[in-house]
Each structure stands twice: as structure tokens, then as C-alpha cells.
Write a structure and sequence with these properties.
By secondary structure, this protein is of the alpha+beta class. It is built from 18 helices and 11 strands.
């Protein structure tokens, strides 16, 4: 056999790149998720409440853990972090300049620099320049560019469109169906797609990508989970760049076309900032609202007396949405860390330490909400919930989510007041976002 016929000892270039990417991804996962998760699991085995909460995910067992947090005080020092379910403390942390967003691991010297070097180049909701983890002045600049689309006046202009979309979707429901797949997800993705100039033909693809990357907000991902999220983020990043280029050539009157124009005219946003801002608006514009609609349908189905109140007095629907957001929020928790030493509730918090704020816990604080576990669409202070966070990182899409929740839930129960939810409903496996992955139903 001649040397030219010997099997190659070298991998093809594409295969070698794939191997390098996998190795780099595994190392990044190990530093950013694997090692911290080992610490959290060890803490959970010793009864640490933050560890237990991380391991519990978004199932109903979280409520028992939240009650334990509340029973131990307004601010509980865990083995890894501080944690609070107190409404006043959660509000203080979210609004205080002494705390900021971001990953406290980024302050851990060699570990941080090694993780940063290995981090994928694709956009990520928890990596700058994402709005979720930037602070002023950059955060102020990004937010100012998109806020005008989500004002009450702008959102109300979309109400008629939302009602039309809801009617069209409800017309297609018949017999046995999955309400998450056929209704709760399609209503918000249709509206946010309109806002961002996404063609109708691509909306189901965008919805699928949003579902794939929802777990990117979670801590403690397993390697298979991390690998799936990484692949989803790479697909989303590539799609978004293609979409931006398409709008650059054929701009419309949508938000993203306006942002592209701003980038081209005065360089206010570079491509990374443009993708991060548009990507977050897109994903946040439907991911949390899917949960709001699913959670609301389940609550009202399970509490027919409350649904009867809405049938008798439709003016209560906006308050009913607030009560759904309060008692079963689409986002369970968030966190802030102290860049400098500070004091909270009389406890010293060293620089770099994190405070986990349980939005779901604050929403059931008995000092603020009477009989907090009771679902009551007439609750006078239901809007005092913290489901949209607070302070400079208050959800900029709150008005849109409220409108979609009201239109979506009212339209559904006006059409199907006697809906039957069937066995087989499944919660989403995510740890931060809380909602239904499937909601089988019989409608007629």
C-alpha cells in the first residue's frame, strides 16, 4: 500500500473545529455551572435553603422551601448566598444602588478570567451587553432606545390587534388540544413578532428557539442541559443576525428596523449591543407571557367561584391578571450582588456576595397580603406584587404583558367558560421561569 492510500491521521478541519468547540464548551460548563453546582448540591444535602431551592426547580415543592425561608427571618444567611422572601427586603435590594445585577463569579479572579476566555461568543441573556446584567450608564442608554415601544399608549394601540389574534386562535381550537402549544404561546409570539418585524413564516421557529433557550437563565445546568442551551443560543444568534441584515435592506416601521437605523446613523449600538437588546426584547416579550396565560387558565379553571366573579363583573379582569401574577408568577426569583461591602437588615454583606430575592415569596408575604395563599380576583392590593421586579431593572414589557394577559384570558373564558383541563399537564423544567409546558384540555 502506498503512503497516499494510508488512512489519514488528521481529522477534517470541520471535525477538528467541532471537537475544539465541544472541549471548550465542556470546560466553560465546568467552571460556570458544574463546579458551582457541586457546591450548591453539597449545601442542599446539609439543609441549605438556597441549595434546596435550586434543586427543587419550579415545581410546587418550592412553596414549602419559601415558607422555611420566611420562618427563619427577613434575610437568611446561607452557606453560599443570602436569601429573602420578605416583601420589604426584596424591594430594597431591587431598588438600592448598593446592589447590582451581574454574575458575582466574575469577581473571582482566575476562575472568572478562565470562564470569560472560554465563554461562547454568542449572545447570552446573562452576559453583557444584555439589559439584564448591565448597569447605568449603558443600561440607561439601551433601555431608552426601546422604552417608547412599551409605553401604555403604545401598548393600547396593540389591544385591537391582540383581540383579533386571540379570536383567530380560538376559532381554530376544537376538541382535545394543548392550550400552551395552540394558544398561550401563539398569542404573545404573534404580537412581539409584529413589534420586531418578524415574518409570519418564521414565528414558529422563533417560538421554538425561545423555548430552547429559556433555561439559559438557570443556575446549575447539567452538561446535557448546558449543551442544548448553547446550541439553542447559537441558532438564535445566527437567526437574529440574518434577520437584522434583512431589515437593514428592507426596513419596516417596527422597533427592530428603528434600532438598526439608529445603529447605522450614529453608531449608538454596535452589532453585539443590537443583537443583545433585540434578542432580550424578543425572548422576554413572549416567554414570560406564555407562562402568565397558562398559569392564569389553570388558576381560573381550578377556582370556578373566582371565574364567576369575572363573568358577573368584567371590569375585574385587569385586577384578576394582577392576582395571577401575584400568586403564581412567571418568574420565581432573581438575584443581586454587592460590589462593595454593605449592610442589609443589620447583617454585613461582603463585596461579591449575592442576595437571592424570591419574587414569588415576596408576593405571598402575609405582612403585605391578607390570607396570601388564597386566589382572590377582587384583592384590593393585588398590584403590589413584585413579579415584574422593581427599580431600574423593572420589566420594560410589563404593560404589554398585562394587556396580553387581560385580552388572552378574557377572550379564552368568554369563548370557553366550561373548558375541561385533562390529566397530563406538565410544568416547565426551568428553575427561574415558572409555567406550564403542556396543558391538555377539552374545548367545544
Amino acid at each position: 500500500m502506498s503512503l497516499t492510500h494510508l488512512p489519514s491521521l488528521h481529522r477534517p478541519a470541520s471535525q477538528a473545529v467541532g471537537v475544539r468547540h465541544k472541549a471548550q464548551s465542556m470546560l466553560h460548563w465546568g467552571l460556570s455551572q458544574g463546579l458551582p453546582n457541586v457546591v450548591v448540591k453539597m449545601a442542599a444535602r446539609k439543609g441549605d435553603l438556597q441549595g434546596l431551592l435550586t434543586q427543587a426547580g419550579s415545581g410546587d415543592e418550592i412553596w414549602d422551601i419559601i415558607d422555611q425561608v420566611r420562618a427563619q427571618g427577613t434575610l437568611v444567611r446561607g452557606r453560599v448566598t443570602f436569601i429573602t422572601a420578605d416583601h420589604a427586603v426584596v424591594s430594597e435590594v431591587l431598588t438600592s444602588k448598593a446592589f447590582r445585577t451581574g454574575n458575582p463569579l466574575d469577581r473571582l479572579g482566575f476562575l472568572a478570567s478562565a470562564s470569560a476566555r472560554l465563554r461562547p461568543a454568542t449572545m447570552h441573556p446573562l452576559v453583557e451587553p444584555s439589559l439584564l446584567v448591565t448597569e447605568p450608564p449603558d443600561h440607561t442608554r439601551y433601555r431608552k432606545l426601546v422604552t417608547r415601544v412599551f409605553t401604555m399608549r403604545a401598548v393600547e394601540k396593540l389591544r385591537d390587534r391582540a383581540e383579533s389574534v386571540a379570536t383567530e386562535l380560538l376559532d381554530e381550537l376544537d376538541g382535545r388540544t394543548d392550550l400552551v402549544e395552540q394558544y398561550c404561546s401563539l398569542l404573545p409570539v404573534t404580537l412581539i413578532s409584529q413589534i420586531l418585524g418578524i415574518p409570519t413564516s418564521e414565528r414558529r421557529e422563533v417560538l421554538a428557539m425561545g423555548s430552547d433557550i429559556a433555561a439559559s437563565l438557570d443556575f446549575g445546568l447539567s452538561w446535557p442541559e448546558y449543551r442544548d442551551v448553547d446550541a439553542g443560543l447559537r441558532r438564535f444568534d445566527a437567526w437574529l443576525e440574518t434577520h437584522i441584515e434583512a431589515l437593514r435592506k428592507n426596513p419596516g416601521d417596527d422597533l427592530l428596523s428603528q434600532l438598526v437605523q439608529v445603529q447605522d446613523e450614529d453608531g449608538t449600538l454596535n452589532m453585539a449591543e443590537l443583537k443583545a437588546t433585540a434578542g432580550l426584547v424578543l425572548a422576554a416579550g413572549f416567554e414570560t407571557t406564555v407562562n402568565l396565560l397558562g398559569n392564569g387558565i389553570k388558576l381560573l379553571h381550578d377556582h370556578p367561584g373566582e371565574l364567576a366573579k369575572l363573568e358577573q363583573d368584567p371590569s375585574l379582569w385587569s385586577n384578576a391578571v394582577e392576582e395571577v401574577l401575584r400568586i403564581d408568577p412567571p418568574v420565581l426569583l432573581t438575584a443581586r450582588f454587592a460590589p462593595e461591602p454593605t449592610t442589609l437588615e443589620g447583617q454585613h454583606i461582603s463585596a461579591g456576595l449575592q442576595v437571592v430575592v424570591l419574587l414569588a415569596g415576596a408576593n405571598r408575604d402575609p405582612k403585605v397580603f391578607e390570607d396570601p395563599t388564597r386566589f382572590d380576583v377582587t384583592r384590593a392590593n393585588a398590584r403590589d406584587h413584585l413579579s415584574f421586579s422593581a427599580g431600574r431593572h423593572h420589566c420594560l414589557g410589563a404593560a404589554l404583558a398585562r394587556m396580553e394577559g387581560e385580552v388572552g384570558l378574557k377572550s379564552f373564558f368568554d369563548r370557553y367558560p366550561d373548558v375541561t383541563l385533562l390529566p397530563g399537564a406538565q410544568r416547565r423544567p426551568t428553575r427561574i421561569l415558572r409555567g406550564w409546558r403542556t396543558l391538555p384540555a377539552q374545548v367545544s
